[in-house]
Amino acid sequence: MFFFPFKDDNPTGNKPFISWLLISLCIIIYLVQLSFNSNEVKLFIMSYGVTPGLLINNFGSLWFTVLSSMFIHGNISHLFGNMLYLWIFGDNVEDSFGKVKFIFFYIRKKPTFQRINESRKICRRSIYVMYEKI
To answer: For residue 22, what are the CA distances in angstroms to 19, 32, 40, 60, 101?
Structure first.
């Protein structure tokens, strides 16, 4: 059975202002993306999204995409899922870490998850190629 958590039972001692700020930024940037035509969306994603091969070869000029890509979402379900979990769990993590450490944690975790996601894609392609040869 599939379910979405809508709240948690862990009260926090402080208001999660950083979580609210991150959620707001992501929503605003998504709304800006919606105002673009298809060519502008492609240009926006190519300019501010991370492309691992380009990043490795041109880190000096593309380092900012590691940060800017944290706020780009592909569609409404991608945005909704990420913001839902940030809303539910971000307040507890922010309360536990403190505001400054939470910001550094949020910034630091993104490249890690990008590498994990890229590894998953490579594994899926390898499995597909393997089954295709059988």
So the answer is: 5, 15, 24, 26, 14
Which residues have C-beta within 8 Å of that of residue 63, sequence separation ≥ 6? 55
Of the candidates 108, 34, 124, 113, the residue with the CA atom closest to the CA atom of residue 73: 34
pTM of the model as a whole:
0.74
pLDDT digits (tens, 9 = 90+) for 36-55: 998 999 999 889 988 777 87
Contacts of 13 (CB under 8 A, 6+ apart): 95
In angstroms, rounded to a whole number, what is the distance separating the alpha carbons of residues 111 and 123?
A: 19
Q: What's the rounded Cα separation, in Å, for the pair 69 and 46?
A: 10
Structure tokens given for 110: 């993104």
The separation between the first and the last C-alpha atoms of the chain, rounded to the nearest angstrom, is: 34
Predicted pLDDT at 125:
54
